[in-house]
Specification:
With about 375 residues, this protein is an alpha+beta fold. The protein folds into three domains: about 160 residues; about 80 residues, no CATH class; about 80 residues, 2-Layer Sandwich (Double Stranded RNA Binding Domain), CATH 3.30.160. It has an eight-stranded antiparallel sheet. Strand 5 and strand 6 form a beta hairpin. The two termini are about 45 Å apart.
Length: about 375
């Protein structure tokens, strides 16, 4: 009776694994492939658009203009087009140009973001482009929303929960049964001189089990990206800012170079990453990163300054983060591979290819076992 129950349970979970694969498997594939591309989105973008993103090698070592000088050019350019400069980021490479973000002054245009590139040595405007309309940003938006906005994001989020269930059901189906050490050897290796069906099954199982850990991490962190509020509220993670007003605020309008200097004074252990400007006299938000911060490209640390006085509004440090905030702070860097540098991104790239391998081998085997598969073999 116990054996019968185990057999029934096995078949039920195997069918669940099959139908999950058939229903959301294709979505799993496209999410994985697009994720593989954006794991190296900066490098790909620089190779496709060097005229916007990189200066010539002989100019990389020359003195760069100040952020304020380039910001003046950017603001003049934006004002002529009914836009305002919403932020800038530090250079990724020594030869990187300076990029600014611009947005429409009129709210009716939504959250369209334009990128403006300025030569850091000559101050020349190199060009602009719209976020979502060039290759890597198009893939990035597809990966996060399927180009369907909030609806697409929710589709991906709920499908990712199904993907997680598919992975665990696959683990249950794969788990070796019986006794003896050879059962593990057979489960972890490809059988030699096997027929096509057995080869497909072995390849599907082996690829799945060796990639299970990274697939689980990527899928789980993807779920968090869609439903962060649920996770944070459940864990009580609030990511508090530390309110510590400065004793002597500036008596003049803050400049970008002064803001960065103030940031270095407040958090000398951090490195400047980005500044986000408000539209008007709103606070400036500076993001910073530290050596132990997993999100090196963006940074967990924050400093908020008032642009008219230079007064410190609040700040946040990775070293002061709660256990829950630190846990959630790892989510995006693990999902993108950023947490472990180039090696981490390469692992994410390979992980993104795995759903295609699993889908092809699993579907091919299923077709060959069905009547449709038999008909195909006769043709």
């Amino acid at each position: 009776m116990t054996r019968l129950r185990r057999f029934t349970s096995y078949n039920t979970i195997r069918r669940l694994h099959l139908w999950l694969a058939l229903s959301i498997g294709l979505l799993f594939v496209v999410a994985g492939l697009s994720g593989s591309i954006i794991a190296f989105d900066h490098a790909i973008d620089e190779s496709l658009n060097p005229h916007l993103l990189l200066v010539k090698e002989d100019e990389a070592g020359k003195p760069r203009l100040s952020y304020d000088a380039m910001l003046s050019t950017a603001r003049a350019y934006a004002a002529e087009r009914g836009l305002y400069v919403s932020g800038l980021q530090s250079r990724r490479l020594p030869e990187s140009t300076q990029m600014f973000w611009m947005r429409p002054l009129e709210k009716g245009h939504g959250w369209t973001t334009y990128e403006l590139f300025i030569h850091p040595v000559s101050g020349e405007v190199l060009g602009q482009r719209t976020w979502g309309e060039y290759f890597t940003s198009f893939v990035y938006m597809f990966h996060h929303t399927l180009w369907l906005g909030k609806t697409g994001k929710l589709i991906l989020g709920y499908s990712a929960i199904g993907m997680l269930l598919m992975l665990f059901s696959g683990l249950y189906v794969w788990w070796p049964r019986g006794q003896g050490e050879k059962r593990w050897q057979h489960a972890l290796t490809l059988k030699k001189k096997a027929g096509i069906l057995r080869r497909l099954l072995d390849f599907h199982r082996v690829a799945g089990i060796y990639g299970l850990l990274t697939l689980t991490v990527v899928v789980f962190t993807g779920i968090y990206a869609v439903f962060p509020e649920f996770f944070r509220e459940t864990a009580g993670a609030t990511a508090p800012m530390r309110q510590t007003p400065l004793e002597q605020p500036l008596d003049k309008t803050l400049t970008v170079d002064e803001a960065i200097a103030r940031m270095e004074q407040l958090q000398p252990e951090s490195g400047f990453s980005r500044i986000y400007f408000g539209n008007g006299n709103e606070d400036w938000l500076l993001t910073l990163s530290t050596q132990d911060d997993p999100r090196a490209d963006h940074g967990y640390n924050r400093v908020t300054l008032h642009p008219a006085t230079g007064a410190l509004r609040d700040q946040r440090r990775w070293s002061e983060a709660s256990t829950a905030d630190r846990f959630f702070g790892w989510m995006f860097p693990l999902h993108s591979g950023e947490a472990f540098g180039s090696a981490g991104r390469f692992i994410v790239l390979l992980t993104g290819l795995l759903p295609t391998v699993l889908m092809v081998t699993g579907t091919w085997r299923w077709l060959r076992k069905t009547r449709h598969g038999k008909a195909l073999r006769k043709t």
